[in-house]
Amino acid sequence: MKPEKPKLALLAGALGVSVATVSNALSGKGRVSPELAERIRAKADMLGYVPSVAGRALRTGRSGVIGLVLPDIGNPLFPQIAQAIEQAASMRGYGVLIGDSRGEVDGQTQAIARLIDRGVDGMVVIPRRGTRVSDIGCPVAVIDSPSTPGNTVSADHWDGGRQMGAHLASLGHRRVLLVGTSPLSNVQADRIGGLKEGLGDGSITETVWIEKLEANLGPGCPLGLVARVAQGFTAIATLSDLTALRALTELQVAGIAVPAAASVTGFDDLVWASVVTPGITTMRLNATEVAQLAVTALTQAIEAIPRGELSPLGTVMAARECVPMQLVIRQSSGPAVQPSDQGQPS
Amino acid sequence: MKPEKPKLALLAGALGVSVATVSNALSGKGRVSPELAERIRAKADMLGYVPSVAGRALRTGRSGVIGLVLPDIGNPLFPQIAQAIEQAASMRGYGVLIGDSRGEVDGQTQAIARLIDRGVDGMVVIPRRGTRVSDIGCPVAVIDSPSTPGNTVSADHWDGGRQMGAHLASLGHRRVLLVGTSPLSNVQADRIGGLKEGLGDGSITETVWIEKLEANLGPGCPLGLVARVAQGFTAIATLSDLTALRALTELQVAGIAVPAAASVTGFDDLVWASVVTPGITTMRLNATEVAQLAVTALTQAIEAIPRGELSPLGTVMAARECVPMQLVIRQSSGPAVQPSDQGQPS
DNA sequence: CTGAAAGCGCTTACAG
DNA sequence: CTGAAAGCGCTTACAG
Known about the structure:
2 copies of one chain form a homodimer. The first copy, chain A, is α/β, with parallel strands linked by helices. Chain A is built from 12 helices and 12 strands.
């Protein structure tokens, strides 16, 4: 039923002009009289002509595809970022090829290599903790934290921390437990720094790294928050919504009311933050904007490469951008309880 | 520094043979003496030769890329599936292009069209609720539920429900509240059916659809579970881990101990199910196996198309496969409380 | 067993 | 303003 997928030659034949002219008309390179161009465009639409990506790629040396390299699935941010990247890319006419690191240590390197072999024009990489993206033969946009050396686009994790710290301080919290997973993460380090700044000098903080805790007590061990609250901590400021969830339920089960007896906060505004009771106060990450910046910077870097040249080794996009995070206040944070306890922090 | 990316001609030149022979040797089509083939392979490895996908695609009419069409981000299953698909595909030499439906109604159709225009050889689609994937011009593998008409690969959601129902029945639960989001979902309908079967005739169930509840009470409204427990329901069997989380925290905040006073179960074993206290009893979905089946069926369908032919309209893979789900018992389910209440279910 | 040649569908100097 | 021709890097009949 459906007619053969139309090629350039078919279109040209149907119009009685050369393929060169059709190509020029459709790519809008000028060189064609307005009337003819219009006729050609109309016919192309009518026949549903779409240029073959293979033909174009072979001729131009550009695939029109970018790669998206992600750390392993552990990061629940993945869906938002992936969706946002895809949307931003397709608005600019690029496809997005998945390059998953699979949680293996050198998975990232392999994923990058696979993408290069597939001929991507460039890639967006969200590096694994502690990894640096070294010179690879194509433009790269890195999404990480502002304190990452080199050019990256990121949310302003430090300022997000500062906002959250200020929020807690304004509620009267002076003794705050900070809970993260790994001190090696640039993102988490930024958040911690901002949190301390926002809480101000009058506050006492202590930091718990789950990775270390679990190395001793086993995965999924209790975080010992009940004891911490007894010690006088009035707020648990976590560095991710997943940790916040863990903290929230650990307290609830022990009969410690949130936020009446202790506040709990998260980061990123992931799906469950708003679903849980009480809703989790968190910092929203605007994935759409981060993706937009990354893709814009990347495609500009790609398109800046002169035709036919290979990209300079280790091209990294020129941008260094930072988008603000936004405080989302829900019920899990409230006024600090009166200090009714004289225990020392251990 | 790095040498030019080697092309076939370069390899051939370096070895003093024709490009045809190099091509034949590397593709293992026979036709080349074992010794020569070995020499060619060695040289190719040494130079790091990787065939240009564009050249190959143009010549063979195959892109070596499959599309992955996903419903909007709401589905937290996304990461697992995407990762598993990518892995299965790359094992078979295929790349994976993202096609996100963006949550719009006709986003799915648009995503499919974009992928076709990009020249994918076939695609895996996880359809939006109620959508049927109609004839599109390439092979398709659909991941949905076994009760979806047409060929699909899926987890055995019905049997998963049955297992969960049996688990609850064995703990003495006779009055179980079923909580899902939408009755239009094939997956959820299967799970409900299985649940009822597993609970057996001796049980009373009632079903709550969050979509309807929220249409009246607004998004994020309480599920009214406290009242249900007072009515004598001893278990809340939800159809997803996100709903389980919502139920769990709603009960905890009201001081209803889980599982001492009521059990809560979920589905899919998503990341938070094991992080929360108490851990959520759930049915694990083996995304890796589902993806493997889908990709295998898809690539077989692709490779069954004779060279140069376009795929028969609306080719759908031949397979209809189903992988079992696995019960994961955690602390959120326990023995039913003694019936101490004579209220009628409303 | 090996090679010369054609051609996949485009885009782009170059002529006219 | 328009067209004829070359060529991007492969694979595949077809000859030898």
